[in-house]
Write a structure and sequence with these properties.
Blueprint: E1 2-6, H1 10-22, E2 26-30, H2 33-42, E3 47-50, H3 59-68, E4 75-79, H4 84-92, E5 97-100, H5 105-116, E6 127-130, E7 133-136, E8 141-144, E9 147-149, H6 153-164, E10 170-171, H7 172-180, H8 190-202, E11 211-214, E12 218-221
Parallel strand pairs: 1-2, 1-3, 3-4, 4-5
Antiparallel strand pairs: 6-7, 7-8, 8-9, 10-12, 11-12
Helix pairs in contact: 2-3, 6-7, 6-8
């Protein structure tokens, strides 16, 4: 499974991420609430694990906003906030499970696996569309104006992130984290190089460009520049 972990305590996040990776899962880690909300609403995850006490946007607000935006991914809160009312608040905010720290990793893993076994919602989005650009997440096919476009796996993931964030600015840091799983700046032009290749396939053969550069910030996928 692909799991999003939103936890600002590095010791805890390293512990959980290491265990999930060893169990065969893919784990993306973010330490900030707002970044976590963006990833939750724009990424394709099977389960989200979130702390309640997060910088910039606390966990309850994060999950409420994600649910309001249509995100149906199961969420398990992992937190030291342990009162009965706190647990109720977490579940009513849109959480599916609530685990209090400290905990045994085996219990967390069992709960994640249980959430992952739930059948997906019937209305889960499997096709992304922006203008005449279409991406099928199941068949992994991309087309524009009816013309099929062949993308490499990294290009596909890059385009998916941009399409899920249509109309919003996607920063270079966000792309490094969500496409390459880099939580540091590699000091290379890897993002710029891949965006250039993607433009050659997605924009160059067509009249209207969709991938826009936001100077000194990142990129945005939108119609009309």
């Amino acid at each position: 499974m692909r799991i999003l972990l939103i936890e600002d305590d590095k010791k805890t996040s390293d512990y959980i991420a290491k265990g999930l990776t060893e169990a065969g899962h893919i784990c993306d880690v973010l330490a900030d609430g707002r970044d976590g909300l963006f990833a939750a609403t724009s990424g394709s995850y099977d389960v989200i694990v979130a702390d309640r006490m997060l910088p910039s946007l606390e966990g309850l607000s994060l999950v409420k906003s994600a649910r309001a935006a249509g995100t149906r991914t199961p969420v398990i809160f992992v937190t030291s906030v342990s009162g009965i009312e706190d647990r109720v608040d977490g579940l009513e905010a849109g959480g599916d499970d609530y685990l209090v720290k400290p905990f045994a990793f085996s219990e967390l893993l069992a709960r994640i696996n249980a959430l992952g076994r739930r059948p997906p919602p019937q209305d889960r989005q499997t096709v992304l569309k922006v203008a005449d650009l279409e991406m099928d997440l199941i068949s992994r096919r991309v087309s524009r104006a009816g013309v099929e476009i062949e993308l490499q796996p990294r290009e596909f993931r890059l385009l998916e992130v941009l399409m899920r964030g249509t109309g919003r600015v996607i920063t270079r840091t966000m792309l490094l984290e969500q496409v390459w799983d880099f939580h540091f700046d590699p000091k290379t032009s890897v993002v710029e190089t891949h965006v250039s290749r993607l433009r050659t396939k997605i924009d160059k053969p067509f009249e209207v460009p969709l991938i826009q550069t936001v100077r000194n910030t990142g990129y945005s996928l939108r119609v009309g520049g």
